[in-house]
Structures are given as structure tokens and as C-alpha cells.
Amino acid sequence: MTLTGAVMTHPRRIAAAGEVAAKDPKSRIQVVTDPDPTGPPTALRTANPSWNCVGSTATHHIVLQDDVLLADDFFSHVEAVAAAVPDEAVAFYEGWEGRNSGVVRLGALTGAQWGYAIDEHVPSLALMLPAEAARGYAKFAAQHGDGWPYDVVMQRYFKALGMRVRIAVPSTVDHDDVPSLAGNSKHGWRRATYFAEKADAVTSQACADFDVVPFYQYGESKCAVRYGARWDYLDTDRYLGRIGLAERCDSGFAGLSNPVGEGLPATVRRQAWLTAFATGVVVAGLTQQDPNPDTARAVMESLGPGGLCEEYTDAELLPMIPRIRDLATKAFEAGRTARRAQDGAMPSLPADVVVTGGNPAFGEHLVRLLGDEGCRSVYAERLVSHQEVHTVVHLGDPQCSPHTVTSTLMAAEKLGVQRLLHISSAAVYRNQSTDVCRENTLSAPPTDAEARAWWDEEQEYLHWGKRTGVTVQIMRLAEQVGPHAPLNGVLATWMLKAWTRRPMALLDGRRHQLVDHRDVAGALAAVLALPAQSPVYNVASAQFDEMELAELAAQTARLTPWEQAADAPPPASTMSTTLITDETGWVASADIRSGARAQAQWLACDTHDDLAGLGLRRSR
């Protein structure tokens, strides 16, 4: 095993970088400075030469950032790890503000010394790669970097290699909280989830691979849940509902005595409880052993600042930390108790609805959201003859082969489907001159080409329904928000610009309607729960003007400038959603900002099926 390495820095911090490099007793660590220190601040620019300076005979290369604190005996520890896991990427740090903080907590609470990272930007404060992978990074970044954040490019590089990242539990590197030259200070106070001041000998190279990872981020409690080859990132209360423990969680929270979490904002108290309760549920499902009390206290100590560091200053967080820790400790034990008392698995009930067509990743995601609404459904990319189908929800897409509609309707007729709900788009109203579009606004085919394509698809379904006597309804969705949303939406386009540091071009006078995927599921469930009434419904969650939408993109993806475009805006019209509310009682309830953040993270980090649309090759 032969190690080389680099500390990436800016000339203004070269002294600090030199101190980090000097901690290696074998003097193998170079200091690499920003090749364009007067350019826009970005870690990506310095990362390329830092990975490109791997030694010719090296088997491993480590890159550190200049604002790190190293555990005692760190470099001896690195050598031992490199020898033990020669073919993997190793992160020696994970911050308390990331999704992977949940991996570290679960690892610590179950006695694991390593955990495989879930999909997120790679924790790159202290990262070691096999030498060949290190040598290939700069070329990949040159081809695919395109302004993306360094840790996102690194994550995509690993996907292209088919290489997973193992995270040290505990971290042997911490973050020295100095102002970020790359603009990351907006992420707030950042430290390790769980840090060891001395790098002890690793007794096992076994790496935990968790299927459910609760985490607390941006003030929201979430669970990463693996469904087959894909991850879903959902609200923790939804996950607990899916496994039958939501009521136990709620009753435990309602029964809290006043001193536990006293003085915390109500939302903080609730979201911290959810995260720690779900963590207890997962841990109880993995081991019957009680965690070390000191370890449990340490990982719960970082839960609050990790989840709230972008919402509060460090001065505001400090008095909250012990209150959240005590609350989380109680919630963790409540979650363990609830999981152990649970009687067997949730019953599997037959599906009432088959969702078909569209993007399979979105279809599967929608089916799970429908289940949260009490509507049992399954996803099938296409209808097949052996299925027993009463109701079909078809995800429309006029860009697909024209044979798709025909084959779907032929299969539906053969199977004796009795009700079909076709998901269409608000794009059918493009370039309408009226301010408010109602379901009966269109009395003739639209002249706009995109609108006409959606109209024609709708008409084919409606005409089929009249011919066969099958109930057919159309649901026109506003621009979708959430994971797997189409890449051609304005919000998605602006988020991609924000992630890659390109200005957004604003058109004065435009108005935008968005629909959160959770609201899509709620609207579908509301319509399907009642006998069919109107043939067409408009569905939207919220409305934004041009500036408001630009701010939403920048706040949930990356702060970025915008500019006024010279083009004339199209007519500004919006859909009325009064009809579906009047007939079914449905009202939009999803937090659109939360949905937008989920979409932004999906675009940047998550495994999805649209990498080609971002100019990236697919993972192997």
C-alpha cells in the first residue's frame, strides 16, 4: 500500500493548509492551491489538480480540505484502511447536516464501524480513493463538471464507476468551522455527526448497508427508504404510516411531560421527535442489543444542529442542543419499544387501482403516495392480459410512441376495465388569451403545437370511453414538483441553471402554477373515492409570479443571479381548481417549498432515470 495526498486550498488559507499537510509524519501530502484564485469561488476548480497529483506508484490518494481537524494517529489509520479495503472510496468525515448523518447515527447505534453512503453529494472534506479512480476524476470533471458543485460531481463520478462510498463511524476528521471561501457558509454551522478525537484501530471492515435511514435536514424529518434499486426520500410520518407505527409515534409525542423539549419551537419539537423515533424503530429492527449510552447521547447531541443549522445561527442553536438531545433520547427509546411490540408484518391487501404509462420511477413513487392516501394501487409500465383490473390511472405523455395510447386502450378494453383516469397537463391551455382557464375553457382544438398534442391524447381517451361505455376522466396537472418531475418544466430548468451557476432568464408578467406530487396523489384518491362526476379536472397546489418562482429555485437549489430576458412573455393564464374542490372536497395541502427542495436534491444527487437528460452517462 502506497499513499499520496493533497490539501486543497486558496492562497488566503495556504498557512492553514500547510499545517494540515504537516501532520502526516511521512510528508506525503501536497498543498494544492486554487489555479484561478480571483475567479468565482468554487471547490471544483481546486479539486481537479488535487486529485490529478496522485503519485505514479501510489495505490491510494487522499484529498483533504484546508478546514479540517484530524484525529490523533489519523494517517496511520488511513494506511490501515487503505490496506483493508483497497477498491473502495472512503469518506473519513460526514457532516451533521447531511442525509448521510443518518447513516452514521445508525452505524454508531448498531455497533458498525462503517456504513455505505446513500445517494447524496459525497462527503468530500476528507476522501480517499484507489489510485486509478483518483487519476480518472479530473477527466470526468472536465467532461461533466459544467458548474455543478464539487461533491455532486464526485457523487456522479462514483455512479459512473459503479463504486460505492463507505463512511467512517465515527468520523476521524471534523470540520473546523471557519468561513467558507466557496460560498458554503450559507449552510450554517457545520461539524461532524459523530467525531472521535483518536483514530482507534478498526476491528472490522464489514460495512453496514441500511435500507431505511432517518435523517433531519432543513428543519424537516425525512426517511431515505430503498425500494428495489431506487431510493425514496419521504416525510417520516409517511414512512411510519406505511409500517403501521404512526399512531404509536403520535401517542408517545402527545404524552410527553412538559420538561422534555420545553422551550423548543413546536415544529422543531415535532420534527426532532419523528427523526429519533424512526431511528429507534430502525435500530430495533436490526439488533436486540442496547446501544452504548455514551454513544447514543453523542449522536443525539448532533441531531438538532444538523437539522437546523441552515435555519438558525450557532448562537441560537447552542441552548437548543441539550433540549433536543434529551427529547431525541426519549423518542429513540419510544421508537425501539414500539418496533419490538409490533405484531408481525403489515397485511398485504389487493390493489384497487393499476397505474400505468409514463416514467416508471414516477409511477412507482405515485403508487406509494396513493397508498398513503388509503388508495391501494400497483404500477405496471403497461397493461397485460393476466391482470385483474377495475380502475386504471394512465400517466399521459404525447411525446411517447403514438402506439402507446392505442395499445393501452386495447388492453383496457380486453381486460374489462370499468374506470380510467388519464393524467394530462395544464400545457393543453398554452397560449390561451383568458386569464383563468376552467375545465370547459377549450371548446375547440388549441392552435399551439404542444397544447394540441395533449388535447389530441385526451380526446382519444374520451372518445374511447364514449364508444365502450367505460367511465373516462381527465386530470390536468400544473407543472409538477417533486422527485421524477419532468425536466422541461420552468422550475426544473431554473434549478439546473442554479446548480450549475448560470443565471436564470426571467420574463416579466409570467405566472406559474405548480402541483406537488403529494397533492397529485391526494387529488387522485379524492376523485377515485367517489362515483365519477365531471369528465375533466384541473389540479394545482400553488401559484407564483416570475420573481417568486426564481426565488424558490434559488433557495431550494443554489443561490444564483437572474436576469431579465428580452423575449415577450406568453399570455399569462392560470387554471381554476374550484371544480375538483367543490365536487370532491380536495384541497392542496402539501408544503410546496418542501417539494421543491426534494426536486432540487433529486436533480443534483439522487439515483434517477433521466441522467441522459442532464448530459451525463448512466451509472453502471
Key features of this structure:
alpha/beta; six-stranded parallel β-sheet; 25 strands; 18% strand
Overall description:
By secondary structure, the chain is an alpha/beta fold. The protein has three domains: 1-209, Spore Coat Polysaccharide Biosynthesis Protein SpsA, Chain A; 211-347, no CATH class; 353-605, NAD(P)-binding Rossmann-like Domain (Rossmann fold, 3-Layer(aba) Sandwich), CATH 3.40.50. The chain contains 21 helices and 25 strands. Strands 2-1-3-7-5-8-6 form a seven-stranded mixed beta sheet, with helices on both faces. It has a six-stranded parallel beta sheet with strand order 14-13-15-16-18-22, with helices on both faces. A three-stranded antiparallel beta sheet has the order 10-11-12. The longest helix is centred in the middle third of the chain and has 21 residues, at 266-286. It is globular. It starts with a strand and ends in a 16-residue tail after the last helix.
Topology (elements, then pairings):
Elements: E1 3-9, H1 14-21, E2 29-33, H2 43-52, E3 60-65, E4 68-70, H3 74-84, E5 89-91, H4 101-110, E6 114-116, E7 126-130, H5 131-144, H6 150-161, E8 165-168, E9 173-175, E10 212-217, E11 220-227, E12 230-235, H7 236-242, H8 246-254, H9 266-286, H10 293-301, H11 303-308, H12 314-317, H13 321-341, E13 353-357, H14 360-372, E14 377-380, E15 391-395, H15 403-415, E16 419-425, E17 436-437, H16 449-468, E18 471-477, E19 479-481, H17 490-499, E20 504-506, E21 511-516, H18 517-528, E22 536-539, E23 542-545, H19 546-556, E24 562-564, E25 574-575, H20 578-584, H21 592-604
Helix pairs in contact: 2-5, 4-9, 4-10, 5-6, 8-13, 9-13, 10-13, 14-18, 17-19, 17-21, 19-21
